User: Which sequence fits this backbone?
């Protein structure tokens, strides 16, 4: 039965396993998330976590059922969601988050991520403080009219597998390692027959021609456009010619010429990784240090020793025109070097602590750490990010205006215990009241920005509506950010995301 | 100092024209809807506050509404009772679309899907359960929506989009697509274009059916709004779609390097040779026994060349051309599409103009831009396309152009022409007997085939529902 369940899960999750792998799926199935408020947005987020197989969820919702959202409340929601995936365990707590914070704040410590939906400002800040101290990632979500809002609050989130979209290859042609140089030596382009010549990998071709170039140019790489062009021409002249002097069709040489630009990129350590090497956590390893930093430190030790200033070799080569044997042999040269480097990294890890450094080694170029400011920092007059706010508002229609309006609306709620414009008769009169909230907000934070009346009118018009399509957009976005946090794969946003369904635009702000 | 901004005349004129016609379409959707409303039907499934979220957008004026928008308490009724939406596809996007539309107040929905449910759909196509595996997607989806969302009347069609003609499509106010193939998109594109009515060269806006098209792949997606005859159509932006990866035959046959090459070797060359499950049995990617056989043979092939990395998962991925998929991306893109349906149906806001790109691999990234119409688009421009060939070119060259040109990308075009007053099929691939008869034409020159300069060629292909007309122009 175990095997059958495993097989059916593999089938069911096949399409997503191809994105985050079995190990990512395991993290997901070991996670327990909390969603506060099973509104349209809350249930959409949950749906998109239950379907891919989150281990468990708990809904916290103290609201009673109203006409607007029949079918969205805690118990009904839990049952409906469980139906989507029988592997997931669902729980609900019919209690307001404020009550829980009063009576049992440690309730929230057990969760992998807490997602707060449509929370009033005071609850949000209280919860933010508790979760920050407990190092539990907190994702704040709000659908307000046609605006979607997300705020990620996580002290330090490490990512080994960021899966970058367009990474450059790691070929080391500018500083070839010994095994590669030996392999290149085994080729003699001048004495090859035609078939071999046309099926020699372009990496070998560039390496060979670089050697010749070095000897004629004082061991300097082609540097500027002129030199690279000359180098390309140099390679082109190596294309075999037939008895009439007409160049043959050698696609591998064309590939070499095409790849000259990127192949001659200098091997260097990305700035982001250098910063990580220089960080406090990397240089002060203790028995409490999370494994990410131990592995990173091991990579740093490698760089200063076996690596001679460079990161471990990644080990991948792109596909290219070649016969099978030449390609596989070349691929193996890189793979074996990568394995060697990874073993060296692991040895450093052993010296630091017991752990596994292989995955970290292969992904060394792409290691990322996301650090978000706390809500307290965002909301404090002393540390508010004035620069970000005022520079965005140079364009009064930038998405920043929606952030400010959401803050103003929160302020309105604090004062009047209701949101503006919920009932038709309120819309007109609330415009001036909301404007007062806006002005008080700008004044408190000394923000010298102008918010157009149109936006104030629009936010009264919204009447705190939670339209389904905006909830659904946010539901997908938030769920995926939660999955990133849980799986430590792909990179979460930092730290505020605004979606404008009116114009179908969005922005990420650091507040 | 007065700064003058200079727009080319084409742009000003087309902008004004578009803007006007744009008004008219939206106005007309309302006019059509109003004409059909008969004063309310006394709904049985409403409860207090059910549509509060939507009413705020229909009954209140606001600073960002479309210029045509008028607040009204009747609009909700129009949406609920009269607006008719066609959802194409009941898969990853389709399930989300049906739900989004139904929960937004659209009750007259039709859904078309030719597929049945597979286990691997269940990680995102949430209208389906394990017990539904094997049943038609359209049927199960419509059942689910109708039973869970009171008042919704979704009508399923377990069919291919090509099984319907214009009379079917003409009945809808808006069409939303969650398709998984470019060929199908182009076909639908052709249909809505064929519905357009021109009077004295001027487009009648009442014949326009807006199409909202969504697509997803892993963590990437896009949503676009197409106003046929007015904005960029699918074919206008064909070059935006990345070409499908097909490995060269010599690599597959004699010089494999990647595990994928080994699988393709088995699929393309070994299976037809060994016919492992019987003479007339084609490889079925959904049959685990077939995949297992391909997997084992691929391992053997790989071992011959010292290639590592062949797994069952990789094998299946190559054979079925699997595209990775998750619930979240489909939720986002479908939501964006459904928002546009709402805007178009109600003129509550100006619709997306006209293309949204989304990617959440690193943070969340969106990019919104206006895809431009192609002046000589093979699908939506009114001008027949010129084909430039010398009279001594062979017919094969013309066919190669039709399939390989980036802007046409036809699959297996069938070409006919009027020669000496009679309709002559020059080449047709899809019917074996005709293919055999016309195959010799491929190596004949255009002159030998009796074609003349300025001659019209009619071309039919799966990428277009209507025959395309080309004009043959002889070079020297």
Assistant:
């Amino acid at each position: 039965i175990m095997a059958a369940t495993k097989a059916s899960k593999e089938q069911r999750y096949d399409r997503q396993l191809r994105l985050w792998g079995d190990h990512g799926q395991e993290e997901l199935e070991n996670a327990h998330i909390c969603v506060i408020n099973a509104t349209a947005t809350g249930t959409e987020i949950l749906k998109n976590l239950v379907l891919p197989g989150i281990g468990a969820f708990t809904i916290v919702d103290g609201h009673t059922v109203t006409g607007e959202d029949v079918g969205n409340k805690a118990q009904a929601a839990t049952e409906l969601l469980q139906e989507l995936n029988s592997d997931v365990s669902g729980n609900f707590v019919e209690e307001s988050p404020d009550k829980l914070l009063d009576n049992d704040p440690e309730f929230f410590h057990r969760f992998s991520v807490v997602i707060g939906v449509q929370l009033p400002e005071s609850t949000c800040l209280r919860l933010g403080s508790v979760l920050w101290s407990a190092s539990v990632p907190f994702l704040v979500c709000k659908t307000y009219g046609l605006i979607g809002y997300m705020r990620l609050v996580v002290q330090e989130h490490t990512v080994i597998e960021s899966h970058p979209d367009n990474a450059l290859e790691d070929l080391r042609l500018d500083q070839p390692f010994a095994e590669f140089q030996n392999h290149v030596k085994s080729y003699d382009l001048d004495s090859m027959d035609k078939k071999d010549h046309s099926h020699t990998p372009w990496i070998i071709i560039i390496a060979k021609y670089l050697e010749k170039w070095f000897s004629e140019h004082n061991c300097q790489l082609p540097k500027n456009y002129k030199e690279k062009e000359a180098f390309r021409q140099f390679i082109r002249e190596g294309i075999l010619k037939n008895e009439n002097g007409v160049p043959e069709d050698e696609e591998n040489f064309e590939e070499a010429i095409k790849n000259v630009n990127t192949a001659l990129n200098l091997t260097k350590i990305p700035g982001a990784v250098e910063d990580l090497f220089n960080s406090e956590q990397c240089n002060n390893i203790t028995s409490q240090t999370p494994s990410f930093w131990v592995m990173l430190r091991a990579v740093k030790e490698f760089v200063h020793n076996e690596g001679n200033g460079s990161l471990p070799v990644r080990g991948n080569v792109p596909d290219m025109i070649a016969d099978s044997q030449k390609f596989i042999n070349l691929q193996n040269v890189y793979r074996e070097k990568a394995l060697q480097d990874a073993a060296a990294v692991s040895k450093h890890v052993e010296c630091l602590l017991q752990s596994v450094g292989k995955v970290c080694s292969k992904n060394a170029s792409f290691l990322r750490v996301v650090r978000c400011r706390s809500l307290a920092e965002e909301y404090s007059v002393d540390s508010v990010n004035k620069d970000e706010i005022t520079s965005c508002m140079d364009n009064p229609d930038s998405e920043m205006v929606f952030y400010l309006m959401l803050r103003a609306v929160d302020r309105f709620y604090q004062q009047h215990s209701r949101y503006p414009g919920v009932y038709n008769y309120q819309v007109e009169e609330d415009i001036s009241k909301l404007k007062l909230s806006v002005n008080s907000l700008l004044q408190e934070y000394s923000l010298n920005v102008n918010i157009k009346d149109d936006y104030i009118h629009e936010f009264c018009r919204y009447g705190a509506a939670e339209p389904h399509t905006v909830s659904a957009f946010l539901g997908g976005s938030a769920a995926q950010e939660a999955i990133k946090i849980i799986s430590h794969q792909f990179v979460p946003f930092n730290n505020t995301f605004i979606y404008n369904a009116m114009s179908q635009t969005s922005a990420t702000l650091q507040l | 100092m007065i700064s003058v901004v200079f727009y080319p005349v084409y742009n000003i004129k087309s902008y004004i024209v578009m803007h006007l016609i744009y008004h008219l379409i939206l106005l007309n959707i309302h006019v059509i809807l109003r004409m059909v409303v008969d004063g309310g039907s006394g709904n049985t499934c409403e409860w207090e506050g059910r549509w509060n979220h939507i009413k705020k957008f229909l009954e209140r004026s606001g600073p960002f509404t479309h210029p045509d928008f008028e607040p009204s308490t009747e609009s909700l009724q129009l949406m609920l009772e009269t607006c008719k939406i066609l959802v194409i596809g009941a898969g990853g996007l389709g399930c989300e679309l049906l739900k989004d539309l139904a929960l937004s107040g659209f009750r007259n929905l039709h859904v078309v899907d030719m597929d049945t449910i597979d286990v691997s759909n269940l990680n995102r196509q949430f209208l389906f359960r394990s017990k539904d595996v094997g049943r038609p997607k359209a049927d199960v989806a419509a059942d689910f929506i109708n039973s869970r969302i009171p008042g919704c009347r979704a009508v399923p069609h377990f069919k291919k989009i090509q099984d319907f003609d214009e009379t079917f499509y003409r009945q809808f106010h808006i069409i939303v697509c969650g398709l998984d193939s470019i060929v199908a998109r182009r076909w639908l594109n052709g249909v809505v274009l064929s519905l357009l009515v021109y009077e004295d060269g001027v487009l009648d806006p009442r014949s326009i059916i807006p199409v909202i098209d969504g697509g997803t792949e892993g963590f990437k997606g896009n949503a676009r709004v197409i106003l046929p005859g007015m904005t960029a159509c699918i074919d206008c932006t064909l070059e935006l779609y990345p070409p499908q990866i097909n490995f060269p035959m010599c690599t597959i046959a004699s010089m494999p390097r990647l595990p994928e090459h080994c699988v393709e070797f088995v699929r393309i060359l070994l299976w037809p040779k060994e016919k492992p499950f019987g003479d007339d049995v084609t490889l079925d990617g959904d049959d685990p026994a077939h995949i297992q056989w391909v997997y084992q043979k691929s391992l053997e092939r790989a071992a011959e060349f010292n290639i590592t990395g062949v797994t069952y998962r990789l094998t299946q991925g190559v054979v079925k051309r699997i595209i990775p998929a998750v619930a979240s991306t489909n939720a986002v893109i479908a939501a964006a599409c459904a928002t546009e349906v709402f805007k178009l149906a109600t003129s509550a806001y100006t619709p997306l103009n006209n293309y949204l790109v989304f990617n959440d691999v690193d943070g969340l990234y969106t990019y919104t831009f206006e895809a431009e119409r192609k002046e000589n688009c093979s699908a939506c421009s009114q001008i027949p396309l010129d084909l430039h060939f010398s009279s001594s070119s062979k017919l094969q060259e013309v066919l190669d152009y039709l399939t390989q040109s980036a802007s046409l990308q036809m699959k297996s075009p069938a070409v006919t022409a009027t020669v000496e007053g009679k309709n002559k099929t020059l080449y047709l691939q899809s019917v074996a007997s005709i293919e055999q008869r016309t195959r010799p034409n491929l190596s004949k020159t255009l002159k030998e085939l009796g074609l003349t300069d300025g001659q019209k060629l009619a071309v039919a292909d799966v990428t277009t529902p209507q025959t395309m007309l080309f004009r043959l122009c002889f070079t020297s």
Remarks:
- Chain A touches chain B through 80 residues (CB under 8 Å).
- The mean pLDDT of chain A is 93.
- The first helix of chain A runs from residue 2 to 12.
